[in-house]
Amino acid sequence: MIDRVVVAEPRGFCAGVEMAIKALTWMVRLFEPPVYCYHQIVHNEWVVKAFERVGVRFVDDIGDVPIGAPIMLSAHGSSPEVVAAAADRAAVVIDAVCPLVTKVHHEVKRMANNGFDIIYVGHRGHDEALGTLAEAPEQMTLVEPDDGLDRFHAADPAKVALLAQTTLGTYEWQEVLDRASARFPDLVTSRKSDLCYATTNRQEAVQALAKECELILVVGSENSSNTQALVRVAREHGVDAHRIDRASDIEEAWLLEVSVVGLTAGASAPDHLVTEVIDRLNPAKGFELLAVTDEEEYFPLPPQLRSFVTTLQHLVEAGFTAVEAGAGPLERDREWTATEALSLIAGR
Q: Global pTM?
């Protein structure tokens, strides 16, 4: 019988996911369906299905988007070729890329323009990695965290840079950094790790859970890199851990002789799924929060979307001969959450 559940704080939606979900919610409210999105807006099964039910079609090829249809580009970032192709086909293109991913794209272009060969630490086939590698494919080599550097060759050992997928585990990044630094003494990296603050915070919270819990459950989808990293971090710290999409995925065998369960969620997992897990576990002494830090980061909606909504507001006000503009619908975006946005489309 489960005695206690310890819930990590922070967990779940990060600022980039909040922005992307709210942006796509605006799209389905502004346009008649279908609205198209290049790749899954975020890597979460529940979120994707919620948007599909209200007319969003997720595509992996811009050529599948009809000419003139509205399109959103996902939070993971897109290649320059995809961005250009979307602009050629779509009437409206909104790029919901996370600003932290954009930062890495800028670093890639800067390093490549300065003649560096770039080690990119990431997971092969991940949407973020695909978009980033496309910024300078001739000068970048993808290195999986466990692969080593055998595949990487530098034209000039004094001009090597190291960049990373934002959703890696901290230890994955550090291991490659240590090996690369030993091989290339002049290695150039970002002033700070490329790892997303939310990724790092959630991993630190899992480390804290590992000190108190006999089992850790991580809510999130299989294709979510940061979710998988949380599972690996828990296991690295000696605690049994499992990824689940929902409460019904929990196996009774996991709970045998376990009294304290740790619970967290990847950066794209809705919090109601966490609540449902607590209900499923039904701990005798209830649940408690274990906080390691506060997150107050906020990313505004994409500039293309803000401009579009503001223009529509001005047109409506002009039609009603308004004397002066009223408060715009974007005024409370900082307070409006992705959970509220999803409630609008999912009927929760």
A: 0.91
